[in-house]
Amino acid sequence: MSIHPLIQSLKGTLIVSVQAYPGEPLRTPEAMALMARACELGGAAAIRCQGLADISAIKGRVEVPVIGLWKDGHDGVYITPTLRHARACVAAGADIVAIDATDRPRPDGKSVADTLAPLKEEGVLTMADCMTIDDIRRAVDLGFDIVSTTLSHGTAAIDCTMADGPDLPLLRQAAKEFPGFPVVCEGRVHTPDEARAAMDAGAWAVVVGTAITHPTSITSWFAAALDA
């Protein structure tokens, strides 16, 4: 099994997801670029971000790799749903492109295999955002460079609570089935202890987003604790 040097460099590290939701004060490329740079200074080994403007702005501000994606829509397959979206992320500066790797219908009617094949031919590094162990198996078989538990929680990060934790059972199963393969833990990692637990469960790297880069959610957790 050959692992690209850039992917190898992420082993054992923290990846920070830098995203803001529509209508929020920080929903500007410049704000996201500043946030990304702050995370880099704090020790992030890579930045995951969404949207062409954010990818471009962040790529120009940080030295660590950028994992780019393009969210188009809100339901079904909306994380980099087509080849066109993926190529646009590359053009914007993404070092790795994250793609929904489930077998759900895509807007252009193509399969995930159809979407991935041209990208592999073009030398694009890809990250498979997965929901189930079957998604992970398919992604590994198709030739994705990284697989991630991104979609296993089945809800948007903004809807998760502090009590929700990462999907360690899925992570352990994937790490056991594919030893040595880059299996990333993403989703509902809210504390340093949870990040450490994910690494101990076999994660190649751990992605943390909301708990670091979404002040609205963080503030709501503190406010809820005091209200209780």
Q: What can you see in these coordinates?
A:
The chain is built from ten helices and eight strands. With 228 residues, it is an alpha/beta fold. It has one domain: Aldolase class I (TIM Barrel, Alpha-Beta Barrel), CATH 3.20.20. An eight-stranded parallel β-barrel has the order 1-2-3-4-5-6-7-8, surrounded by seven helices. Strand 6, helix 7 and strand 7 form a beta-alpha-beta unit. 44% of the residues are buried.
Number of helices: 10
CATH topology: TIM Barrel
User: What is the number of beta strands?
Assistant: 8
| Range of helix content | 40-55%
GO molecular function, one term: N-acylglucosamine-6-phosphate 2-epimerase activity
EC number: 5.1.3.9
Function: Converts N-acetylmannosamine-6-phosphate (ManNAc-6-P) to N-acetylglucosamine-6-phosphate (GlcNAc-6-P).
Pathway: Amino-sugar metabolism; N-acetylneuraminate degradation; D-fructose 6-phosphate from N-acetylneuraminate: step 3/5
